[in-house]
Amino acid sequence: MVAIAAAASDDDDFDRRSFITPTNAFSSSFLPSRQPIIPTQHHHTSTSSTTTLHMGLQIKIRIVGRKNGGEKWLDQSYSTYETRLKPTNLEVTTHWHKNDDDLLKNIQADTSKNHKVILLDPLGKMCTSEVFSDNMYDWLEVGGSRLTFCIGGAEGLPKELRDGTKKSDLLSLSSLTFTHQFARILLMEQIYRASEIRRGSGYHK
Q1: What is the pLDDT of residues 102-137, one digit of tens each?
Q2: How far apart are CA 134 and CA 89, in angstroms?
Q3: How far apart are CA 172 and CA 183, in angstroms?
Q4: Which helix (H) or strand (E) holds 116?
Q5: Terminus of the chain with fewer CB atoms < 10 Å: N or C?
Q6: What is the Cα–Cα distance from 94 to 9, expressed in whole angstroms?
């Protein structure tokens, strides 16, 4: 069983079940002298005061399994948020992985480039959308504007990956169980919501 965690493969398809997992508030050190472009909006208690991110923020969703189970609504739902994100400086891509070995290889490649990696796992801590927004931009800052979310397969994330990850880098979106494809849509909506919270729009109420 899997708790909506995040892991993926570059060109595969899969339809298994996953759980969603939480995230602890994360404080990060600032990157050296970059032009601030997204000021922090203080509508709630925040762990960050300013943001030093530059243009071209990139988020990867790595997921073990198949892209869909033949249900077009899954792609249509995901595409809705993909389209909404186009006017922003956030680029989100999904990478589908055949198996855990393929996932591990690609996660290692991300970490070797100092990209921030967050695992969706039942052991993670759930948080509000406001905290997720703060955390997401903190993670992007720490990772040099590069962030990877990882969703595991039917049996969850590989043990060696989970065991080698700090508890604060585990995220749980819910205690409910969802298919991998639906977990990806839920994560994508929260990424979009996080960007709207940071922008101060009326989307999040």
Answers
A1: 999 999 999 999 999 999 998 899 999 999 999 999
A2: 16
A3: 11
A4: strand 116-125
A5: C
A6: 8
Tokens of 28: 């990060």
Sequence letter at residue 162: R
Neighbours of 106 (CB within 10 A): 20
Find all residues with CB under 8 Å of 99, minimum gap 6, and list them: 9, 64, 153
Q: Kindly report the number of other CB atoms within 10 A of residue 36's CB atom.
A: 12
Q: Check residue 35 and give its pLDDT.
A: 38
Residue 130: C-alpha distances to residues 40, 194, 200 (Å):
12, 7, 11
How is residue 94 annotated by DSSP?
E
Q: Are residues 43 and 27 in contact, defined by beta-carbon separation less than 8 angstroms?
A: no
